[in-house]
Amino acid sequence: MAPPAPASPRVSNTRFSLLAMMLVASLVACTAAADGGEGTCGASTSPQQHLYDITATIRAELPVWLQETGLGEDHRTMVTSHKKGDKVNASMLRFNAHTGTHIDAPRHFVTTDPTGIDDIPLDVINGPALLLEAFGVEALTAEVLSSLDIPTTGVSRVLFRTENTRRGLMGQTAFAPEYVGFSTDGAAWLVKHRPEVKAVGIDYLSIARLVDLGPGHLALLGAGIVPIEGLVLPEHSTGKDFSGVVVPALCSAQTGGE
Predict the structure, then answer these.
(1) Which of 20, 90, 108, 226 fits a disulfide with 258 by CB distance 3.0 to 4.6 angstroms?
(2) For the chain, which ranges sit under pLDDT 70?
(3) Inter-axis angle of helices 184-193 and 213-222, to 10 degrees?
(4) What is 80-97 written as a DSSP string?
Protein backbone atom coordinates (compact mmCIF):
# COMPACT_ATOMS: atom_id res chain seq x y z
CA MET A 1 0.00 0.00 0.00
CA ALA A 2 1.36 3.40 -0.94
CA PRO A 3 1.88 5.71 2.05
CA PRO A 4 -0.52 8.67 2.36
CA ALA A 5 0.64 12.00 1.01
CA PRO A 6 2.58 13.75 3.78
CA ALA A 7 1.82 17.31 2.77
CA SER A 8 -1.89 17.36 3.57
CA PRO A 9 -2.38 16.56 7.24
CA ARG A 10 -5.41 18.00 9.00
CA VAL A 11 -4.15 20.86 11.14
CA SER A 12 -5.79 22.36 14.17
CA ASN A 13 -4.18 25.20 16.08
CA THR A 14 -5.20 24.93 19.71
CA ARG A 15 -3.53 26.63 22.66
CA PHE A 16 -2.83 23.96 25.27
CA SER A 17 -1.09 23.69 28.60
CA LEU A 18 -0.25 20.77 30.81
CA LEU A 19 -0.57 19.73 34.43
CA ALA A 20 1.42 16.88 35.94
CA MET A 21 -0.04 15.40 39.11
CA MET A 22 0.70 11.68 38.99
CA LEU A 23 3.74 9.43 39.07
CA VAL A 24 6.32 10.29 36.37
CA ALA A 25 4.20 12.87 34.50
CA SER A 26 0.46 13.30 34.75
CA LEU A 27 -0.81 15.92 32.33
CA VAL A 28 -4.04 17.87 32.29
CA ALA A 29 -5.28 20.67 30.07
CA CYS A 30 -8.13 23.00 30.90
CA THR A 31 -9.78 25.86 29.04
CA ALA A 32 -9.37 29.50 29.86
CA ALA A 33 -12.30 31.20 31.52
CA ALA A 34 -12.80 33.58 28.63
CA ASP A 35 -11.56 34.07 25.08
CA GLY A 36 -8.06 35.38 25.17
CA GLY A 37 -8.00 35.24 28.98
CA GLU A 38 -5.44 33.81 31.30
CA GLY A 39 -5.81 30.06 31.63
CA THR A 40 -7.12 28.54 34.84
CA CYS A 41 -7.31 24.99 36.17
CA GLY A 42 -10.10 24.64 38.69
CA ALA A 43 -13.11 22.57 39.71
CA SER A 44 -15.68 24.89 38.17
CA THR A 45 -18.49 23.25 36.23
CA SER A 46 -19.09 26.35 34.16
CA PRO A 47 -19.84 25.54 30.49
CA GLN A 48 -16.95 27.84 29.58
CA GLN A 49 -14.49 25.57 31.35
CA HIS A 50 -13.56 21.96 30.56
CA LEU A 51 -10.96 19.76 32.16
CA TYR A 52 -9.13 17.24 29.97
CA ASP A 53 -6.90 14.61 31.53
CA ILE A 54 -4.38 13.76 28.83
CA THR A 55 -2.39 11.19 30.79
CA ALA A 56 -2.38 7.43 30.42
CA THR A 57 -3.77 5.53 33.39
CA ILE A 58 -1.23 3.25 35.08
CA ARG A 59 -2.93 -0.14 34.68
CA ALA A 60 -2.08 -3.73 33.85
CA GLU A 61 -3.14 -3.31 30.21
CA LEU A 62 -1.06 -0.19 29.61
CA PRO A 63 1.25 -0.57 26.57
CA VAL A 64 4.95 -0.58 27.38
CA TRP A 65 8.00 -0.35 25.16
CA LEU A 66 8.52 -3.37 22.87
CA GLN A 67 6.23 -5.61 24.96
CA GLU A 68 3.25 -7.61 23.72
CA THR A 69 1.67 -8.17 27.12
CA GLY A 70 1.62 -4.63 28.51
CA LEU A 71 2.52 -3.51 32.01
CA GLY A 72 1.06 -6.59 33.68
CA GLU A 73 -0.62 -7.23 37.02
CA ASP A 74 2.67 -7.43 38.92
CA HIS A 75 3.34 -3.69 38.53
CA ARG A 76 1.50 -3.21 41.83
CA THR A 77 1.69 -5.36 44.94
CA MET A 78 0.02 -4.96 48.31
CA VAL A 79 2.50 -4.46 51.15
CA THR A 80 -0.11 -4.38 53.91
CA SER A 81 -3.83 -5.05 53.63
CA HIS A 82 -7.01 -4.76 55.66
CA LYS A 83 -7.94 -8.21 54.37
CA LYS A 84 -4.83 -9.63 56.03
CA GLY A 85 -5.60 -7.91 59.31
CA ASP A 86 -3.26 -4.95 58.82
CA LYS A 87 -4.29 -1.52 60.03
CA VAL A 88 -3.69 0.14 56.66
CA ASN A 89 -3.85 -0.64 52.95
CA ALA A 90 -0.51 0.15 51.31
CA SER A 91 0.86 -0.92 47.95
CA MET A 92 4.20 -0.82 46.12
CA LEU A 93 4.58 0.20 42.49
CA ARG A 94 7.31 -1.28 40.31
CA PHE A 95 7.81 -0.28 36.68
CA ASN A 96 10.14 1.49 34.27
CA ALA A 97 10.59 5.25 34.68
CA HIS A 98 9.34 5.69 31.10
CA THR A 99 5.99 4.02 31.75
CA GLY A 100 2.84 5.75 30.55
CA THR A 101 2.86 9.53 30.16
CA HIS A 102 6.34 10.86 30.90
CA ILE A 103 9.12 13.20 29.82
CA ASP A 104 12.65 12.40 28.67
CA ALA A 105 15.75 14.08 30.05
CA PRO A 106 18.89 14.63 27.92
CA ARG A 107 20.80 11.90 29.78
CA HIS A 108 18.32 9.34 28.46
CA PHE A 109 20.12 9.41 25.07
CA VAL A 110 22.87 12.04 25.10
CA THR A 111 26.02 10.44 26.52
CA THR A 112 27.78 13.78 26.98
CA ASP A 113 24.91 15.48 28.83
CA PRO A 114 24.19 14.35 32.42
CA THR A 115 21.08 16.52 32.73
CA GLY A 116 18.34 14.57 34.51
CA ILE A 117 14.65 15.19 35.16
CA ASP A 118 15.53 17.15 38.29
CA ASP A 119 17.64 19.57 36.23
CA ILE A 120 14.96 20.51 33.67
CA PRO A 121 13.66 24.04 34.40
CA LEU A 122 9.93 23.99 35.06
CA ASP A 123 9.38 27.01 32.82
CA VAL A 124 10.48 24.91 29.83
CA ILE A 125 7.48 22.58 30.21
CA ASN A 126 5.05 25.01 31.85
CA GLY A 127 2.79 27.44 30.03
CA PRO A 128 0.80 27.64 26.80
CA ALA A 129 1.37 25.04 24.11
CA LEU A 130 0.19 24.63 20.54
CA LEU A 131 -1.81 21.51 19.71
CA LEU A 132 -1.40 20.39 16.10
CA GLU A 133 -3.34 17.60 14.41
CA ALA A 134 -1.30 15.71 11.83
CA PHE A 135 -3.49 12.94 10.49
CA GLY A 136 -2.85 10.87 7.37
CA VAL A 137 0.93 10.77 7.75
CA GLU A 138 3.24 7.94 8.77
CA ALA A 139 5.88 10.16 10.39
CA LEU A 140 6.54 13.74 11.40
CA THR A 141 9.04 14.38 8.65
CA ALA A 142 10.59 17.68 7.58
CA GLU A 143 8.07 17.84 4.73
CA VAL A 144 5.13 17.29 7.06
CA LEU A 145 6.33 19.79 9.63
CA SER A 146 6.97 22.45 7.03
CA SER A 147 3.36 22.07 5.88
CA LEU A 148 1.97 22.64 9.38
CA ASP A 149 1.16 26.07 10.70
CA ILE A 150 3.82 26.27 13.39
CA PRO A 151 4.50 29.96 14.09
CA THR A 152 8.12 31.00 13.80
CA THR A 153 7.91 32.99 17.05
CA GLY A 154 5.86 32.94 20.20
CA VAL A 155 5.50 29.16 20.55
CA SER A 156 7.79 27.16 22.82
CA ARG A 157 5.67 24.01 23.37
CA VAL A 158 3.97 21.91 20.69
CA LEU A 159 1.80 18.80 21.07
CA PHE A 160 1.09 16.50 18.13
CA ARG A 161 -2.13 14.52 17.78
CA THR A 162 -1.62 11.92 15.04
CA GLU A 163 -2.89 8.63 13.67
CA ASN A 164 -1.74 7.14 16.97
CA THR A 165 -4.85 8.69 18.48
CA ARG A 166 -7.10 7.62 15.60
CA ARG A 167 -5.83 4.04 16.03
CA GLY A 168 -6.23 4.21 19.81
CA LEU A 169 -2.67 3.00 20.38
CA MET A 170 -2.40 4.19 23.99
CA GLY A 171 -5.45 2.04 24.73
CA GLN A 172 -4.01 -1.11 23.17
CA THR A 173 -1.91 -3.48 25.27
CA ALA A 174 0.44 -4.79 22.59
CA PHE A 175 3.26 -2.48 21.52
CA ALA A 176 2.62 -0.99 18.07
CA PRO A 177 5.93 -0.67 16.18
CA GLU A 178 4.41 1.34 13.31
CA TYR A 179 3.44 4.30 15.49
CA VAL A 180 3.78 7.88 14.24
CA GLY A 181 6.75 9.82 15.56
CA PHE A 182 9.48 12.19 14.44
CA SER A 183 11.79 11.10 11.66
CA THR A 184 15.42 12.17 11.94
CA ASP A 185 14.99 14.87 9.30
CA GLY A 186 11.78 16.04 11.00
CA ALA A 187 13.58 16.48 14.32
CA ALA A 188 16.40 18.34 12.56
CA TRP A 189 13.87 20.57 10.80
CA LEU A 190 12.21 21.54 14.07
CA VAL A 191 15.55 22.35 15.69
CA LYS A 192 16.67 24.48 12.74
CA HIS A 193 13.47 26.23 11.73
CA ARG A 194 11.60 26.59 15.05
CA PRO A 195 14.38 27.29 17.54
CA GLU A 196 11.98 28.74 20.12
CA VAL A 197 10.30 25.35 20.61
CA LYS A 198 11.68 23.73 23.77
CA ALA A 199 9.11 21.00 24.47
CA VAL A 200 7.25 18.62 22.14
CA GLY A 201 4.56 16.10 22.98
CA ILE A 202 3.35 13.01 21.13
CA ASP A 203 0.43 10.60 21.49
CA TYR A 204 2.47 7.40 21.86
CA LEU A 205 5.40 6.00 23.81
CA SER A 206 8.22 7.65 21.85
CA ILE A 207 8.73 11.07 20.32
CA ALA A 208 10.81 9.48 17.55
CA ARG A 209 9.52 6.69 15.33
CA LEU A 210 11.11 3.29 15.84
CA VAL A 211 13.39 3.37 12.77
CA ASP A 212 14.69 6.81 13.82
CA LEU A 213 14.74 6.15 17.55
CA GLY A 214 18.32 7.12 18.42
CA PRO A 215 18.96 9.90 15.87
CA GLY A 216 15.51 11.42 16.41
CA HIS A 217 15.90 11.62 20.17
CA LEU A 218 19.48 12.85 19.91
CA ALA A 219 18.51 15.67 17.56
CA LEU A 220 15.80 16.92 19.92
CA LEU A 221 17.46 16.28 23.28
CA GLY A 222 20.80 17.55 22.02
CA ALA A 223 19.14 20.85 21.16
CA GLY A 224 17.55 21.16 24.61
CA ILE A 225 14.06 20.14 23.51
CA VAL A 226 12.14 18.11 26.11
CA PRO A 227 10.01 15.25 24.73
CA ILE A 228 6.65 14.61 26.42
CA GLU A 229 5.63 11.07 25.52
CA GLY A 230 2.60 8.86 25.98
CA LEU A 231 -0.04 11.58 25.81
CA VAL A 232 -3.70 10.65 25.51
CA LEU A 233 -5.24 13.28 23.23
CA PRO A 234 -8.84 12.28 22.35
CA GLU A 235 -10.26 14.17 19.44
CA HIS A 236 -13.02 15.70 21.56
CA SER A 237 -10.42 17.58 23.64
CA THR A 238 -10.43 20.65 21.46
CA GLY A 239 -11.07 24.30 22.04
CA LYS A 240 -9.54 27.71 21.60
CA ASP A 241 -7.54 28.74 24.68
CA PHE A 242 -6.02 26.36 27.21
CA SER A 243 -3.85 26.82 30.26
CA GLY A 244 -2.13 24.80 32.97
CA VAL A 245 1.26 23.54 34.20
CA VAL A 246 3.59 20.53 33.88
CA VAL A 247 5.25 19.09 36.98
CA PRO A 248 7.18 15.82 36.52
CA ALA A 249 7.97 13.59 39.46
CA LEU A 250 11.21 14.89 40.95
CA CYS A 251 13.70 12.05 40.44
CA SER A 252 17.39 12.64 41.05
CA ALA A 253 19.65 11.86 38.10
CA GLN A 254 21.85 10.04 40.61
CA THR A 255 19.05 7.51 41.08
CA GLY A 256 18.13 7.15 37.42
CA GLY A 257 16.14 10.34 36.80
CA GLU A 258 16.33 10.11 33.04
Answers:
(1) 108
(2) 1-51, 236-251, 253-257
(3) 10
(4) E-GGGT-SS-EEEE---T
